[in-house]
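User: Fold this; tokens only.

Assistant: Input:
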Amino acid sequence: MADQKGVELTIYNQNLGLVKDRREIRLGAGSGELRFMDVAAQVIPTSVAISSPDGGLRVLEQNYEYDLLSPQKLMEKYVGKEVKLYQKNPQTEREESLTATLLSTNGGPVFRIGDEITFGHPGRLIFPGVPEDLIARPTLVWLLESAAAKSPTVEASYLTAGISWRADYILTLDEKDQRGDLAGWVTIDNRSGTAYRNATLKLVAGDIHRLPEEEPRLEKTLRAAAMAAPAPQFREEGFFEYHLYTLQRPSTIKDNQTKQISLVTADAIPVTKEYLFRGDGFSYTTPVGDAAGNRKVGVYVELENRREHHLGMPLPKGVVRVYKRDAAGSLQFVGEDAIDHTPEKEKVRVKLGDAFDVVGERKQAEWKKIAADTYEAAFEVRLRNHKREDVTVKVVEPVPGDWQMLASSHPHVRGDAHGAEFRVPVPKEGEATLTYRVRMRY
């Protein structure tokens, strides 16, 4: 690591990192072995490459050594060899040593001491040295050929598992749920087995394709605890079919460390609050009557990722946690939801939970078969509002097939999933009823 001249780290949000490690080495003329140490313990060996801007180097052989030093490994290497056992003499209280041959390590060490075999010996086991094929940390080994003695700079690049990043967002709503302040954070989790000191850090947002057998697995839930953020520190740019975020300063990412860096801040973003009541699909294909019963009314907030709304930067997928101040001015948590990668000019939609004071009830009023492939059904949706303010509930009815609205108490539009959508005003401490009749062919 003392020979390192720079390191660049690109992290993907799929538990994968690309490391480019530049170091100055010393080579004599001809062929020689280069041991490149302090690499990630979860390096993917087949992804390793080495290059030299100075030229004149030829790679003859490449190895990845990961037979790491441990008590068990050390004993396994000394099977059939002599070791020393140190034990305190209970009479003199001095340590005394004896020579033994290590016969086996299965289930514990088995020794031959003189002409006798024993196990469970209480003494300390002393080895004469560390075998050459055991190493303290994972090491890349190259057999290189150099045209002349030199001290070139080489760059080793490799992919490693065990490092990932994700975005976490904090959205704070105003009193009327009409505007919100957004703080976005990048959360980096490094379990790759090495540290990256003063690294040039880049993050790739997007879903890259990887082969299943190379897919590393790391189950880890990351949380953003901060409630405010400094100015954005990342520069964003389009890259292939993804987006690249480059930190504008070097950063050190330690092994076994979770680091958070500010990604984006935006104040007073216009927010739309929506109450959503969703019907079911099975009641269109068979008579069910009142079987649908009572249903919850979901609560959502939605904002647009636009520059005029103080945003406009592509937002990586992550978790949005929403807060609001109570009557005493204290922030309270009101819900969270996961969002996908969101390009500029697209909407961010977050489900906060189910409404307490707004409830819905749906029943099938009539159902009949008109022809072999044609059906007709009538439905009634009752919405009750126990709040002290008027609300509007969006009712989504997933009508299947090719359908025609024969009659309805409220205007409707065809939704994104080809169903019918209604917007039903419900007065404070009152109720409203939506009725409709539809003919379907499928």
